[in-house]
Amino acid sequence: MLRERESKEPAMNPFQKNESKETLFSPVSTEEMLPGPPSPPKKSTPKLFGSSYPLSIAFIVVNEFCERFSYYGMKAVLTLYFLYFLHWNEDTSTSVYHAFSSLCYFTPILGAAIADSWLGKFKTIIYLSLVYVLGHVFKSLGAIPILGGKMLHTILSLVGLSLIALGTGGIKPCVAAFGGDQFEEEHAEARTRYFSVFYLSINAGSLISTFITPMLRGDVKRFGEDCYALAFGIPGLLMVLALGEWSGKGCEQPLIPAT
């Protein structure tokens, strides 16, 4: 009897899948069966003369040259402006000069915080460059002899220097990083060369402005004295050009979002 019972029971396959009725008749989601929409093709960024460099790199390098020319050109005659235009003594001139320089190296902290937590790199550069240009306007107006008296010149100069310090320091941590964002990962070598050209433009703008701005002050005479308004105005125009470069189409669409 035991052998007959064993022969009637089917042999159990150890590899047989144990499927319940719930598994066999479970509904299938239509989302799992239907394929998703195809991902859009990756938009290629314009390249510079057919190289691996994005076109926006040219705008960034020219901008940095103009910005450094603007800053160091103004700073080259700043102490002379304090001594011989505002007629401050040496102690006051030295103190204000170094306070301005210190503020320029403090405001990058503020610029980095704004870019990282609020506006992003691109908008931070645009907005603080506008502040930068406005500072040059105040500084140039404060160097026109027929515009008001010494008190007005002093107020315009200090306000202009404060705005310039905020502008130049605020964009400092953003520009180089924004340029590095323009490269794909496979162009790491081109990114390295970009940073070399970027810092070359910084040094070139600083060096050239140190020679040209004092010449504008000393060789051009207006109102019977040195033309500090021109010495401050030309760097301001270079900063306007730099702002125009950032507003160009080459920098409107960064490859990696400026977060």
Give an overview of the whole structure.
This protein is mainly α. 68% of the residues lie in helices and 2% in strands. It has ten helices and two strands; from the N terminus they run αααααααααββα. The chain has helices spanning 2-8, 21-24, 30-33, 56-76, 78-84, 90-119, 121-141, 150-180, 188-219, 228-246, and strands at 221-222, 225-226. It holds the Pfam family PTR2. The chain crosses the membrane at residues 69-87, 99-119, 126-148, 154-175, 196-216, 228-246. InterPro entries: MFS_trans_sf, POT_fam, PTR2_symporter_CS. Residues 1-45 are annotated as: Disordered.
Give a short summary of the structure.
Keywords: Membrane, Peptide transport, Protein transport, Symport, Transmembrane, Transmembrane helix, Transport. By secondary structure, this protein is mainly α.
Key terms for this structure?
259 residues; mainly alpha; Growth Hormone, Chain: A; two-stranded antiparallel ribbon; elongated; disordered C terminus
At the fold tier of CATH, the topology name is Growth Hormone, Chain: A
| CATH homologous superfamily grouping | MFS general substrate transporter like domains
CATH architecture: Up-down Bundle
Radius of gyration based on Cα positions:
32 Å
Strand content: under 5%
- Please, what is the average pLDDT? 78
CATH class: Mainly Alpha
What is the makeup of the main sheet? 2 strands, antiparallel
Spans of at least 5 consecutive residues whose pLDDT stays below 50 are 19-26, 28-32, 252-259
Number of domains: 1
Structural class: mainly alpha
End-to-end CA span: 81 Å
Biggest sheet, strands in spatial order? 1-2
Question: How many β-strand runs?
Answer: 2
Number of helical stretches of at least 4 residues:
10
